Amino acid sequence: MIRWESSIAFFNATCRDSIVQELVTPKQVARAIDVSESSVKRWCDRGIIPSVKTAGGHRRIPIAAVISYLRETKQPLVAPEVLGLPATSGQSRWVQDRALDVILQALTAGDADRSRQILFDLWLSGKPLAVIFDEVVAPAFARIGQQWACGELEIYRERHACEIMTRVLFEFRLGTPPGDPGLLALGGTIPGDHYVIPTTMVELVLQSAGWNSRSLGNSVPFSSFCRAIAENHPRLFWLSISHVENPEEIVPGVRSLYEAIKDVGGFLVIGGNGMAPEVREQLPMDHFCSSMQQLVRFADSVKPS
Questions:
Q1: Backbone φ, ψ for residue 213 (5° rounding)
Q2: pLDDT in the model for residue 154
Q3: Given 13, 105, 206, 245, which residue has the most CB atoms within 10 angstroms?
Q4: CATH code of the domain made up of 8-83
């Protein structure tokens, strides 16, 4: 029996406007994909769709298992709203360029439903999260940042776009199977860096690649990161650097992290566009990633045989 990690309480407290459910019944799955309930139960019995049992002996299916099944089989999603997904999820096929333009419009307009629909459509069509983040989400927020910096976009619209994306990312997490408990990856952002979205995307991408990934949060002191490494012995530690508040602290701080991760036999990977090239050259690390897809390739390369 697969043990699916529960995060619904944290999810509900953080994303009250999101409606994706963590566990669903065979009847709900059957309604969502227009098959018989007995078929769904049979797939569960065969392990095609992992399921769990409640204390009362009732079968429940993690939403992550349903989404994995849909992505792998391309099974049509007839009634996505039954699973708490946007009503048109899985019914549109987007090319990356068009998806980028449309989601940029949706985010700047504060249209949460449209933003969710586009991203879930891409995901349900089988596109990896790393590709969605690299080719749609990151470029969209780069343009939003440029518009805000040039005075073309009110700051409240930029902040609202971030809130929408944060909620969608937590929904993605509920829909992503838990990683291998033996493959621990920890990370976060450096002191003064309060950007939530990049480190949350790293956490999700690594989880989708089979890692037990945990973001430790934003603006965490280097000394606290080192303590987390010593106490948890991660195989991989990441730093997402979108902003450097104290340039004089980053080199010694990263050096302490590098020494700590080497003491436990792990690897340090860094990403983000918050550093000047001359600063980056001074940082000890095992790899620098300029994209989520690069991160996945490096993470795969350091998995134990």
A1: -100, 140
A2: 94
A3: 206
A4: 1.10.1660.10
**Does 116 or 10 have the greater pLDDT score?**
116
Q: Using one digit for the tens of pLDDT, what is the confidence trace for 2-47?
A: 333 333 333 333 333 344 457 889 999 999 888 999 999 999 989 8
CATH number of this structure's domain 180-301, picked from the four choices 3.30.930.10, 2.60.40.10, 3.40.50.10540, 3.40.50.280: 3.40.50.280
pLDDT tens string 44-85? 989 899 888 888 888 899 888 888 888 888 888 888 888 877
Q: What is the pLDDT of residues 152-173, one digit of tens each?
A: 999 999 999 999 999 999 888 8
